[in-house]
Structure formats: structure tokens, C-alpha cells
């Protein structure tokens, strides 16, 4: 039996597009749309699939709460890949329907919010309707007797339901993107590629003032840039947070390893989420000061120096 | 005409309960339920109401994205008060319906997630239905011929629609709480009470490594504890974030003022959201190291010392 | 009566050269050589002179302990000027004595140490003798029947005692320099020039771990570079130190003022030693991270922003 | 031939007392007094002795410049032991001389400075004379026809020259102490004792702002307290310093090792001076913030955790 992959459905969403990009070799009938992020995680944890794809964060809306919750809680899973998909919205209609004919548009509320300007300009009189996903909108429009004239969806969604693109790029922000992750059951991380990212969840003890700065310094002192820091309530009452951290580099690198050991020491708990190839090199927050001389070569040279000092050699 | 107040509706939600607690003197017919957080902000901005109440963060789900978005973008509003409301779920049914009779339960998806354990134990055979709010669930149950036998909602929701409490405290976490804020048009902040909170949004330049530690240090160096730090995409692409910060103290305090000036200097932009009385003293994250001698008295003493030094007095 | 100035004697030392450079308009008979740094401080404190010149640090030997001790202890004095004098040693002899004739050389032990290479090369057979100052060496050589053939001294020393320069630049390091300060009784510091230095002594409480980093951060956070940090025992037992700090900028500058207020708050005691024009702009250690946007204009802009925020203006 | 040990002479100084305390088993005729700190270092470097004892710092006067210079420059030596000797001054005279008879007192200038109060009270009419060491003073007083009636010296100095103690504890500060070190040729450091000290010299690049804070943080982040920080000019002109650092712990400890590797990475050069048993546990400056969980056990636990993470085990 070929490998199976779960993803946040229905078919035709941006998540399916992400899965296609991450696993182009996987046939469509080996992919399993799930209703809900939690269902994807469950399918992975229970071994019913070999991996799963879910959205992690969106450049407009922020973190996807359900994904973050699943990564933090429940049985551990490991992130093994990521991909950033441009959020390009297309207006789809049934064959023969022109822009001027469109009086009603269905889509997901987030998509609606991100296309408001275009719709106000180009379809000022059209009524808009919220449905559960952009793919569901496309599916609904495709049905005979649909109450909707058009759908705003991902390109993959319109194509899947046999619709015709009436207008491309109807989103108000041309640079919007969503970052998706591929999850699997825990195991050795993929080998370093030289451009990797490492994700962890850090639980700092709330009776320990200064802990957050100390946590960030563990990375900064080793020249490890952070690309994302997201707080998340631990569920133990208002004001109790943990921190989801994405850092540049791979756990097998000396500097990342030393930073993670430092984080482990000062935190109540740390959940390692994975080291995996970066989708691209341009999405760096880099909020931390990279000190000089923190290359992996510098780390190895310092180790050799320490060995010499400990053995009494003149350095 | 009396003062009018908007809130995230419908009537009977936890948000209405928050408004009652913040403004107990306001008659019900001076309160305006709105459909959507954005509608509350718009009503405030346009001057149609004197203030509005919206949820800011939940101890289980985290920040309320719509509220954060409105605080960051659009015309400025000011936070003038906050309240933390315990998320206590009650199972409501029509008069005469006993627990054993309940075969279907309606509520909001978040409430459903937070009552899953209780329902599995006490109503293992009941079907559950998601509706748009806990109050809508109560309203639906109250209607003659309702498809639902019971609703999980806030106490205020069941009461408003004439339902009877079948079971109290049906949430799985007894300590869950939601923090609500009262917003108004910009103006001088309320006078310091001695136990205040200050909220700002800080935009750090992403070409400036170390900026986040530097930002946190601006508070830490003046002994100002942070009670919340939430990242939020700026909308300018993946990897670009701003930070929503809640800090202890009032902008009129010397140490808070100096910290904010420091933040202002190092950030691309800072939006001041308000200084207001803290709902309580127990919800502190306090992630920062409070250095010694950072009371306001210490700040004033140091100012006097500097004046003497500058004038040439022997100190 | 004209103003009188004390300096570390005897006449003809580098200190006299420093005084000449700092106060070129003062006639020689208004200058008072003192035997010992403490005597210069006493003359200033008791009002017998209007100011005094002493060495503060040497680029080869480090801080001058006696000067540091006097600045830290006893009645306060204020540093009002500084000058860096190149330590250029000259070999002087009586008229008619050639290099080949020199069999004995007198000088101060520090000078001897710094000219050892030259002497070994050029006068390999000459015997060397230590005397109490380079000027005393010159004076001794000038006396009829002197036991010494030559003296290594400052140019001013040889000239004062009528000697002839046999060789210039006999020091082994061409870049050696000594920094001298002018001290006066406390009073308003000289007006800022745009290139100033500020000196303080900070006493940190030794029961307060992290105090030194915190102290350095008070400057770094305001973009104030340190040009010198010297520890000094407080006299209360081994392991108890205070720190003599030279920083860039003038106490009348906003950023320096705020930094000093921060230092004042966290320290047990701070002694302000003065703000005065920098001798030159090239002698900067700059060991601290200058954050962005810490110009005085930035400080004033932030003050105006805070005033607007406090008054309720939209910012 | 038994082991030979050099020390800063002459015989009878506090340095000889320190050598006796460090090496009580060494017979007097195996100890070699040297004239000058540099001579002790040379004897060690050239292998003429097995070790040497020199003063490092005094609680009143601060660092001993000659010792610091030798440690930083020239062929490396290693510190293998330390001892803190209380600076207890005794007034010695020849047999038969009473306090009332004393009209002249000889001693070293530093001793004179530290006994000024006692002498003013108890011998207000006695003249004082400076000689090259306290032991030289005792020796001079012991000579027949000595111009001096009494000497202020260490107890060992008076005894060695057959003098009688006229008064004990004549120093103005009862807690003054000098710290001495034992130096040897480089080799493996002595085994950790659990209460050790580690000394290094760090050369930070002066074109690198923030380097000093970064340097201190390398220790602070690993919970390694500093007990001494002394700046010292590098000799390359005013404003260029290196830092002599004493830290708690032993180079063989995980946390000290990691801190030193960090220092090595960020510095232009580091000279390791040794790890050796602490003379006592009470002389700690501890200027750095010890973060939680930085015991060596914490370091080893974190190493094991990282190994598990790298191998793909669920942690």
C-alpha cells in the first residue's frame, strides 16, 4: 500500500495545494482530507497515515490556534517539512457566467475579509455569503441550482469543481501567504541541509521573573536567530503562557544544540517539535542580536581549544 | 439621552456579563449588542456609542484575533477598563426537561471543546450541535419546537431566554477565564489607582537584529513587569510581526513613562492603547527581572540628584 | 593675584607638560609643583590653588592608583578638563657629551622599562640607575660632578635643566601616552562642547548579583558608550570593588542624564566626577552596544510623544 | 635536589608568609627571594624553580600592576594555588626599646599609608621614613647603629631579623588582606575540589561595541559568578584594554567549560591562567546574575536530553 497523507480538508483548499507542493509525487487518491486540524493530528498519531499537512500561520491572520494547540498538547508529533503558499484568491463561476452577471459571492470569512476591497470596487452590488471554507464555496457554486453565482477560492479549489476563473488575484494584499507544516510521528529529524529551521515549545516558570529575556538570550548568545515567537496560554488561567519558537538552524548544529541545552536548563519543560528544511530564506524575523563568531566552525574550534586547556597544553 | 454602550452580541453572552460587571449602573436598554467585534469598534469610532466591550484573550484559546486586529489597525481607540470573567458553563433546558431527557445539546464550538469531558460523562448519548454563540444556543433552545433539548451557555444567557439550569459548572476546567476590555475614543487615560495596567503595540524594525530583547529590556531595566506579550503579523508577509504588550503600571508613573519613551525611541512605531485599573492582582506573568530600586520614589529621587549634579552642587 | 595651579612635580615632568598644554596662558611662576598626587588634591581642596593637574592613566602601565584613590575618597573634587600627552622619551646629556661617551643613564623605573630595547641596542654597555622621576634624572645630570652621564626624560625636563638632546624617541613604543586630568573644587560642569566625556564612580552592592551587567546596561540602553571601566577595591576586604567609569557625552545631554539617573537608582552610591571636553576623538574603547535611535534628538522627541500620550492626544 | 620556590623578596615580607602558608613543607633554604615580581616569573619560566609566589591584589591598593603585566605578557605561566594573607602590621624595635623611646619609624610607603592613623595617635612626634619593603625596614632597624628606632612590618619580618614586637595590629584597617598566587609552568590544572577559581585574560576587539556586556553574559548565562574583573591597558594606546577575570568554578566543570568556550568565540584572544582551589569562600564579588538551573548536574542532564532529541527519541 502506498504512503497515505492527511490534510485539512475539504479538497480544493490552500492546504491541499500545500500538500501537492510538499509531496508532488503522492497520487491524489493517497491523500485524505480531514474535517478539522485535530483530525489530521489524530490520523498521524494513530498511524493511519504517514504524515499530515496543516496550516501553521498566516501573514494576515496570525497563528492558527488549532494547530498550535495540537503541537503543544497531546502525544508528540514532529514537524519534518514546511512550505509557504501565497494566498492568491481567484473568483470562480460556472461556465458562461460573466463578471457582470455575479450578484452573490460565497467564500470563507477570512477570504472575504482579505478580498473586501476588490469586491467593493468590482462587484459593488454583489451580496456576500460566508461558508466553512473556500473549497466549500467552490463546491457550492458548482452545484446545479446553487444559490451563489461565484466563489472566491484557491486556484486548486475552482479547478477541482470544474469552475471557470472570472478574475485572478482578487485579494487586497498581493503578498499574503500561509505557512503550512508537514507532521509525522516522532523520529530522527531529517538531515541538515544548511538552511533549516528548528521549532520548540518552551514552558517558562511563571515564578521566575526575567525568564523570557533569559530564554531569548539563550538563542542570541549563540548567534541563533529566531524567526517566530508566539505566546500561547498554557490553559492554567489568565497570564500563564508558553512560547512557540522557530529558530534558524538544525538541532544537529553545534550552536543550535548548545542553545537548546540552555533553553532546556532554564525552562520548566521544553517540547522539541523538529528540525526541517526552510521553505525559503526570505521570511526571517531575526529579532535577536547575532554575536560575532558564532558559526559552527567557531563552536568546533572553541571545543578543541577547551580540550587543549583542560589537558594542560599551552594555547 | 443616557450613555450608550456597545458589546459583542448577541445578548446573553459572556461579553454581556462582562459589560454588566464593568458598568453595573447602565440600564439594559442603553446597551447595544453588535454582530462582530469589528462592529463594536466601528460604533465606538463613529461616536454612536460612548464605549464598547469586547473579549481580548481567553485562558484556554489565547488572544481574540479580531480584537487584536482592530486595536492595531484603523482609527485609534483607547482601552479604559478591563474585567476578567470566569468561564463558567451552565447546561440550560426548557422548564420540565430533566438531564435524563436531553438527547441534543447546542452551543458554540469553543464551549463544546471546553465541556467535552463533562458531556461524555454525563450525557454520553446526546448529540452536540455547533451554533454561532452560546447565547444563540440558549435562544434556540427557548424557541418552541426547537431541534435542541439543551444549551451550554453563560448563566446570563440561560436567564435571558427563560431557561432553567439543569447543571452548573459543566466546563472541564474550573479556572478558565476570559479577559474583556472596555474601549472608548482616545482621550486622557483614567487617573492612576496604584494597581494599573498599560497596553501598547510595538512595531520593531525587522532589519534590526536584537530588537525584541532590546524592547523587553526597556521595561525590565525600569522594573516594569510585563503581564502579556503577544506577537501578531503586521500583514506585510510571513515573518513580519508586531508585539502587543501589557505592562504593570500607569503611563503617569515615572518608571512607566521612561520605559515607554525608551520603547518609542527604538521602535519604528508605537501605538499607545491605554492605562487602566487592573482587574485583579493575580494574573501576572511577570516575565521580566525587576531590578532593585525601581519604585517611582526612586525615580523621583534620581531626578533630584541629577538636577543637583547639573547645577554643580556637591552630592 | 593671578590664578595658581598645582601639579605633580617636580618641574620638568610629563605632568608639567600636560599643565602647559591645558593652561598655556598661565605663567610658570603661577604653577606649583607638588611632591605626590595627594598633595595636589589637598592644595585644590583647601583652596590654595585654583586647579591641579595629575596623571590618570597610562597606556602601558594602566591607571594611576594614587589619583584613583583621591578621586574616590576624601572631599569631592571635579574633573574639568583632560589632555593626552604622548610619552616621548628623549635622551639628554650635558653639553659636549656624545652618545658614545655615555656610560651611565638615570631615569624613572617606568621610563627605564619603556626604553629598555633602545638602550640595549644603542647603549649596550651603559649602566642604568633608577631615580624618583624623569625630571629628577635630568636635574641630577645637570649638576656639576653628576654620577650620571645622561638622563631619559620628557623634552620639557631636559630643557628646564639646560641639557642637550642626544637622541629623540628612545621609547620602545611610539604610541605610548598618558592621560592627565585637571581637577577643581566642585561646581557646575563646563558647558557641553559636543565632544565631551563624563566620569563617575559607581559603588554596586555586592549582595546584588548581576549588578555589573545591569550597571553597564544603564549606559548601553541609552546608547552611551563607555571609554573606560576600571575596578578598584573599596578597602572593605578582598572581593569588594567599585567601578570608575568614563562615558561619552555630557551630563547635560538627555541620554547621559537618563543613564546617570539609572545608575544612581541601582547603585549603593555614585560619585559624579565631572563632564568635560574630550581630549580627542580617537581614544574610544566603546565596549557597549549603541542601540539605534539614541541621539539626544530622539530623547527629546520621545519626551514630547509621552507628553501627548499622557494628555490624551492621538499620537 | 628538593623542589625550589621563588618569591618576591626580600625575606620577611608578606609574600614569604604567603609562601609558608601555601607550602608549609618546603624548607626555608629551598625558597629563593627575588628582587622584583618579574624576577619570580623569569625564574619560573626558565625552570630554575618549580614555582613562585607573588602578590596579585590588595584589598586597599588594588591589583599589583607588575604581576598583572607578567600574567598577560611573555611566556605563559599557570596559576595553581592562591592564598589570602591578612595584612597585619606589627611595630618592631630592637630589644630594650620601648614605645616611648621611638622617634623614627621605617617602613614601605604602602604600609605607612595604612598605619597613618595609629602612628598619629600613638607616636605623634616620631618621624617616618620610606624604604623599599617592610622587610627591608626590619632589616635596617636590626643593624647596629641603625638610623631608625622601629620598623612597621609583617610578623615574619620582625622575627626573621630578631626584633621585638612593641605593638601589634598597628594598621588602621583590621580587615585589609593581600591575595597571593602560586605560579608554575603550564600543565594540566590541579583536580577540581568543589570550591575552585578560574582565571583568564580576555582581549575583546575594540571595534566591537557591546563586547564587554557580551563577555560578562557568557559567564552569567551559565550561572558562573565572577569574583574579580580588572581592566588593563593592552599597551596599544589609550582606550585599549583587556580584562583579567576571576570566576568561580573549575575548567573541568561543564558550566565553566561552556562559558570559556563562549568567551573564546567572541574574543580576539583568551589566555587561560589556571583553575585552582579557592583560598576561602567569603571573598566573592558575585557581580553576575546566576540563572536558575545551572548546576553541573543540570548541564549533564541537558546534554543527555539533546542526545535523545537528536536521535529521535520522544522526550
From TrEMBL, chains A, B, C, D:
UniProt catalytic activity: prephenate + H(+) = 3-phenylpyruvate + CO2 + H2O
Domain ACT: 200-275
Site entry: Essential for prephenate dehydratase activity: 178
E.C. designation(s): 4.2.1.51
PANTHER family cross-referenced by the UniProt entry: PREPHENATE DEHYDRATASE P PROTEIN, PREPHENATE DEHYDRATASE-RELATED
Enzyme class: lyase
Keyword terms of this UniProt record: Amino-acid biosynthesis, Aromatic amino acid biosynthesis, Lyase, Phenylalanine biosynthesis
Domain Prephenate dehydratase: 4-185
Keyword Lyase set for record: yes
Species annotation: Halostreptopolyspora alba
Gene Ontology biological-process entries: L-phenylalanine biosynthetic process
This protein's name: Prephenate dehydratase
Amino acid at each position: 500500500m502506498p504512503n497515505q497523507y492527511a490534510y485539512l480538508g475539504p479538497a480544493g483548499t490552500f492546504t491541499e495545494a500545500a500538500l501537492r507542493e510538499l509531496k508532488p509525487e503522492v497520487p491524489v487518491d493517497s491523500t485524505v482530507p480531514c474535517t478539522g486540524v485535530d483530525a489530521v493530528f489524530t490520523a498521524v498519531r494513530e498511524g493511519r497515515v504517514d504524515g499530515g499537512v496543516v496550516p501553521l500561520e498566516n501573514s494576515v491572520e496570525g497563528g492558527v490556534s488549532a494547530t498550535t494547540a495540537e503541537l503543544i498538547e497531546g502525544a508528540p508529533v514532529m514537524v519534518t517539512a514546511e512550505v509557504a503558499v501565497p494566498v492568491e484568491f481567484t473568483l470562480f463561476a460556472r461556465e458562461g457566467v460573466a463578471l457582470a452577471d455575479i450578484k452573490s459571492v460565497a467564500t470563507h470569512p477570512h477570504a472575504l475579509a482579505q478580498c473586501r476591497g476588490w469586491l467593493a470596487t468590482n462587484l459593488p452590488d454583489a451580496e456576500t455569503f460566508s461558508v466553512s471554507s473556500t473549497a466549500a464555496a467552490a463546491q457550492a457554486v458548482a452545484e446545479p441550482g446553487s444559490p451563489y453565482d461565484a466563489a472566491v477560492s484557491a486556484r486548486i479549489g475552482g479547478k477541482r469543481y470544474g469552475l471557470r476563473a472570472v478574475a485572478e488575484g482578487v485579494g487586497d494584499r498581493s503578498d499574503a501567504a500561509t505557512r503550512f507544516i508537514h507532521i509525522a510521528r516522532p523520529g530522527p529529524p531529517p538531515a541538515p541541509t544548511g538552511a533549516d529551521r528548528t521549532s520548540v515549545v518552551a514552558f517558562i516558570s511563571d515564578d521566575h521573573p526575567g525568564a523570557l529575556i533569559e530564554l531569548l538570550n539563550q538563542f542570541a548568545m549563540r548567534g541563533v536567530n529566531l524567526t517566530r515567537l508566539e505566546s500561547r496560554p498554557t490553559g492554567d488561567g489568565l497570564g500563564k503562557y508558553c512560547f512557540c519558537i522557530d529558530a534558524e538552524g538544525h538541532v544537529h548544529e553545534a550552536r543550535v544544540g548548545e542553545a537548546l541545552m540552555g533553553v532546556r536548563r532554564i525552562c520548566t519543560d521544553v517540547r522539541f517539535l523538529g528540525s526541517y528544511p526552510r521553505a525559503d530564506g526570505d521570511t526571517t524575523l531575526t529579532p535577536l542580536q547575532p554575536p560575532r563568531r558564532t558559526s559552527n566552525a567557531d563552536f568546533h574550534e572553541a571545543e578543541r581549544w577547551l580540550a587543549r586547556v583542560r589537558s594542560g597544553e599551552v594555547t
